[in-house]
């Protein structure tokens, strides 16, 4: 039997005496607040270095903070057109388990070693033919099938981003789960459950697997070795994602399945850090799961709140970022204060950054937002106009100015609309900017402007379910129930449409005298969420002769 890590008697005694945190009694009080386990980095990340991130959605959350800290993060350079993806483009390339890391990095390495040019032969094992000359990428999150030519073009872009790992200064790996789906025909793991209708027909082709500790460790080490073979000096930082399983295919209580999944991955990450040099484990999982829940989680109890993610990254940078980039650290703290709704502290931190680095536009964004939240509108307007003059292509600055104007004076609505009109023509105008003004425009703009501006995100981001809500409410405000129903029906057919949206559709259908359709929609919610009380209540009302609720 292979033995574990060994220490002499004397060394073991020294280890115990080394610090106060080696005794549980000395850390027990931390659990009522935030927990930050002691770490001992074996390397540093220099300012401006390239950090390649691969992993679950938690890795995506970390990336934007690393960019703010002055690092280059290639995954932030991955772009997809809005008609091909319903969220941030880099989220389409989430990787959840070690076999996926090994597989995609191996795919990239084979092309890198050859000539860097992606061919159909490289793509074919990842492509599922759906007919009409269109193919679906089984190694990406659900994007619509595309032509073979577009598939190769997109894969070339993915390769161009992923191949930067072979020159990166640091590789950050964030495994999240051990439930995996396997394609028996190709011998490859696919991104997620084969829910595409054309895939679901071929039931015998797919296999669900709960990965073993041994397999996860072997694949994680293989992924590191693939990179190290081409980039020997790369530093590796691994961390287990704290984000739990949203649902489990194991047949077990999701809480039990999640605990097992995280236990395996935490053990794998720890073992990998012992088996390879310059591989550190960073305790984001421990910080999130051991801290008081109200300090950590969004209301869905599934995602880590942005403010706490910011604190995790700040803690990481405090230990790993080399040099005294005071502005980058200050910006990190300013954004964390803003996420946590500590607006006076956010203002102070942003101003401190601007004292050090007067041209730091991101600090200006934080400062302006803090001033808006503190109802100091004239100051916020002046700040935003200054930054717009320096960065006229930033849509978010114009949207923030519009929100400030709306908040300052209802009579200045046309002025705010003009800023929004200017913003929507800019290439940087994204869904998050639209969402930040959707309901505000609905309440403050004329009915025609409200409809026109809230229809824009639906037209521009048709796969984003988040784009639909404000327009639905505008149509309902105008008594256009039939149009709202059709828009909700369209949104409910999108990937991962939320239960609340489907329930709104069911309520409207029932209120429109279409109980059979309402029952079917409410029933679809219960199939996904058997304990959804709102759906149960609605079905009971339909069965008893529908009476519209106060919210319909």
Task: Note down, in words, how this protein is organized.
This protein has 23 helices and 10 strands. By secondary structure, it is an alpha/beta fold. The chain folds into 3 domains: 34-295, no CATH class; 324-428, Alpha Horseshoe (Serine Threonine Protein Phosphatase 5, Tetratricopeptide repeat), CATH 1.25.40.10; 498-552, no CATH class. The strands form 3 sheets. A 4-stranded parallel beta sheet has the order 1-5-9-10, with helices on both faces. Strands 2-3-4 form a 3-stranded antiparallel beta sheet. A hairpin with a 4-residue loop joins strand 6 (179-183) and strand 7. Helix 14 (377-390) runs antiparallel to helix 15 (395-408).
Provide keyphrases for this structure:
single chain; 552 residues; Serine Threonine Protein Phosphatase 5, Tetratricopeptide repeat; 3 domains; four-stranded parallel β-sheet
Element layout with pairings:
Blueprint: H1 9-17, E1 51-55, H2 57-68, H3 98-114, H4 120-123, E2 127-131, E3 134-137, E4 146-147, H5 148-162, E5 170-174, E6 179-183, E7 188-190, H6 197-200, E8 206-210, H7 213-228, E9 235-238, H8 254-275, E10 279-281, H9 284-290, H10 306-320, H11 326-339, H12 343-356, H13 361-373, H14 377-390, H15 395-408, H16 413-424, H17 431-444, H18 447-460, H19 469-477, H20 481-492, H21 499-511, H22 515-528, H23 533-543
Parallel strand pairs: 1-5, 5-9, 9-10
Antiparallel strand pairs: 2-3, 3-4, 6-7, 6-8
Helix pairs in contact: 2-10, 3-7, 7-8, 10-11, 11-12, 11-13, 12-13, 13-14, 13-15, 14-15, 15-16, 15-17, 17-18, 17-19, 18-19, 19-20, 20-21, 21-22, 21-23, 22-23
